Fold this sequence. Notes:
77% of the residues lie in helices and 0% in strands.
Amino acid sequence: MASLHLKDKWSIYSTYGIIGNMTRQIDKNAEGCSALRADAERNRLRVVEAARRVFAEDGLDAPMNEVARRAGVGIATLYRRFPTREALIASVFAEKMDAYAAAIENALADPDPWHGFCACIERICGMQANDRGFTEVLTLTFPTAEALEAKRHQSYIGLTELIDRAKAVGRLRPDFSAEDIVLLLMANAGVVVATGDAAPNAWRRLVAYMIQAFAADHAEPLPDAPSEEALFQAMQRLGGTRVTDA
Length: 246
């Protein structure tokens, strides 16, 4: 019985030892997984930051290899984190789209609808001028970037309300439409890209001209605005020809 007792005792100790080893191994594995996750997150942030700089300088069609080079990662690592260019664009410009939406919300909160409208136009066009990539984001569509497109749609609704308020107080010309905002952004994007560092404030003159033209007291008959569908197709065409995964 004593021998059996010692044997049982030894078995218990052995079992405790095995369990202890297993626990230590699990802890090591968990630490390893945690380290891998932390490393993956660091790589993701490096890619996003590098892409933010590259897109701001060279536009959305900048080579993905250049993004990977500046991030200090391989191109395979970049594509593991962001399988498509649209996914990377959506991540890079998430904060800018929030700022875009906030500019519209601030304008809606202005007790003077016309002042809010003008300030919003200047703010949005200024955001374009400061970031070539964002210049293009506002005039393209990204069907697979659902969060970005949802934010754009939300902002569009806010702009429509802002336009209606400015018209209601008699300051915005009655034939102004939300499609005119898209035309302005397209025009401003062209000026920003064309003038670049040579005339970095040229966009301000264009926007000032346009705001004066938008005022109700300058309202002369205009040609019809393009339809919402036509502009959407134009934005899709721009996106299809300029934004690729190369």
